[in-house]
Structure formats: structure tokens, C-alpha cells
């Protein structure tokens, strides 16, 4: 049996240079191929026109390019685009392009399915199949950037890791992908325009701080009371708010960067005065801002968006305490592309 060909994009630039030297070629050839693979996003060796035919054949004999494939693309009437992408092993993830007046944001996935079990999220109902590789994350961004240029005549301006999966449970690959997205040899995007959203894994938040990352951190809080949070996000039992708080203080001390708290408000769950008071108190821990998100129903109604007055009460209480708060309307609902709705429906 022939040995399986290696994915050439798993090689670093150095390894690619060494490979060419080992073939009796110049190390520089490695730079050229690297540029094709990353800045130019080549899907085949054939496209690499400044590389000789023999060399391209030699690469073909030794490697594959495991590029993702955009399988279906849906456009919402508000301009949101959802891609269902097929990975090299046939699994599917989704990514979303959200255009607004001043920016175009890519919302990308970090896992097939998710490691966690938030009761209100459609992705949690899928079985977690595997972590995405760095290049599978990077490719989602490239695909969305191309669509943004094509349909909105604008390059991508921001990236949020708020698609399927828990990014901090796939730590190394997410960081490698961001390295490539921000490197001049990749997309050259500023890390200030990238936000990683986590459900809150204290140990990994501390690791981010130790690694001195330059991107933004968002935390899906949804309740600042342990009993309530555990009910809706059961892993809170393992990582209670006390540990989460400690990790946030550590993050702020090391990075001096604000954290954004994402917050959903449901009827009968976190719509009481004590829920509001607890959030206000939590927000005094470190500099932060609060993003109140509209709930996108995923089923028959166990969770229901709280009344508008409750959102207003939250907003007023936060503002009174000088905490920045925004209320975000959902986009792309008609194509199941909104937060928490990613569940590979288009592929079922
Ligand atoms: N695991 C990460 C990133 C994916 S979820 C995290 O939890 O942050 C991205 C955001 O969508 C989170 O803030 C999540 O709480 C929110 N979300 C999940 N289900 C939702 C739903 N049905 N409606 C609205 N937002 C939802």
C-alpha cells in the first residue's frame, strides 16, 4: 500500500524550506510554495505558476492540499451569508459573514460540534466530532473574505470565534490559526479586530494571559449567580464563578484589556432584580462591557426571550453604574445563521 500523502499545509515555513533542501533544491523554493499556500490560498499545485512543472509534480507525488470546500452558501435578506463547509474527512462546520454599516465580520467555528453542553445552544445538541485544524479555521476566514469582496465590495474587517465549538478547548489550533491570520504572510489582519469568545474555562483564560495574546476576549456569562448558571451551562459546576472571576482578574492584570460579557435574558430564568444586581456586581471586578444578545429560539420553548422591559431594566442598571452596555439585534435568523443556531441543518 502506498503511504498516505501528508497535508503540505501542516508544515511550517521552516519545514517546507528544509524539505526543498532535502530534495536538492533551494530553500527559497519553500518560501514561494508557502506564499502560494497561504497568501494566495492555492487549492492545487497546478496553480503555482512560478514553480517548474517537474517540481509541481514532485509536490503532487508527496503531498495533498487539504482545503475546505464551501458546500452550500445561503444569503439572508439582511445580507448575512452562511457557509456550510465540508472538511477533508467529510464532516461539516458552518461559518457566517455578517455585514453591517461600518464593518464586515466573519463568525468562524473552532470545533465540529462542541465540547460543552449549554442548554440553549443548537450546536450543543450535535455530537462533538473533533477539533478543527489551524488550516481549517484559516480557510473559513479566507472563504468569507472572498465572499465579502464579491458581494459587499469590502474586505473582511473583523473576526469573531463565535461559531460552532468552544475555542479554548481547541487552544493550540485556534492560536496557530490566529497567528496565520495576523501574519503578513497570511492575511495580515490586526489582532485588535479578532475576538475569541469562550464559555469560560478559567485555566485557559489564564493561559491566554500568560501567552500575552493581542486579540480580544469575550465571555458568555448569561448569569452571575452560580445556581442559575449551572442550570443553563452545566459545566459551570466544574468551573464555578469564583474560579472564573479569579481568571478574569489575572487576565486583566496581565493584558490590561477589557473583557466583553455576552448576556442573554430569558423569562423565568435570569429576569429577576437579583439577577440584574448580580451582573452589576460581577461587572465591577475588572473593566468590561456588556453585550446583551437577543435569544434565538432553537426549539419548542423551554427558553424564551424575556420581555423588553427586562432588557431595559438591565440596561439602565448597568448604565447607572457606568458600565458600557449594548443591546444587539440578531442577524441572519431566516437562514439559521444567528448565534446559537449553527447546527448543520443545511446538510441534514
Ligand atoms: N463556545 C463559545 C463560542 C460559541 S457560542 C462561547 O460560548 O462563547 C457564541 C455565542 O452565542 C455565545 O455567547 C453563546 O452564549 C451565544 N448563543 C448560544 N446559543 C444562543 C441562542 N440560541 N441565541 C442567542 N445566542 C446564543
Describe this entry's structure for a reader.
This protein is α/β, with parallel strands linked by helices and 348 residues long. Helix content is 34%, strand content 18%. The protein folds into two domains: 6-64, DNA polymerase, domain 1, CATH 1.10.150; 69-335, TIM Barrel (Alpha-Beta Barrel). The protein has helices at 13-22, 27-37, 53-62, 134-152, 171-182, 202-210, 226-232, 241-255, 273-283, 308-320; strands at residues 6-7, 63-64, 69-75, 81-86, 92-99, 104-107, 111-112, 130-131, 158-161, 194-198, 216-220, 259-264, 288-293, 324-328. Helix 1 packs across helix 2 (27-37) and helix 9 (273-283) runs parallel beside helix 10. The model has no long low-confidence stretch (mean pLDDT 92). It binds S-adenosyl-L-homocysteine.
Give me the secondary-structure category. alpha/beta
Q: Return the CATH architecture of the largest domain.
A: Alpha-Beta Barrel
Mean pLDDT: 92
* Rg, Å, rounded: 22 Å
Q: What share of the residues does DSSP label as strand, in percent? A: 15-25%
CATH fold annotation of the largest domain: TIM Barrel
Order of helix and strand elements from N to C terminus: EHHHEEEEEEEHEHEHEHHEHEHE
Main beta sheet strand tally, sense and closure: 10 strands, mixed
- Tally of individual domains: 2
CATH superfamily of the largest domain: Aldolase class I
In the sheet with the most strands, the strands line up as: 3-4-5-6-9-10-11-12-13-14
Bound molecules: S-adenosyl-L-homocysteine
**Count of DSSP E strands?**
14
Helix percent band? 25-40%
Shape call: elongated
Query: What is the count of DSSP helices, taking H or I runs of 4+ residues?
Result: 10
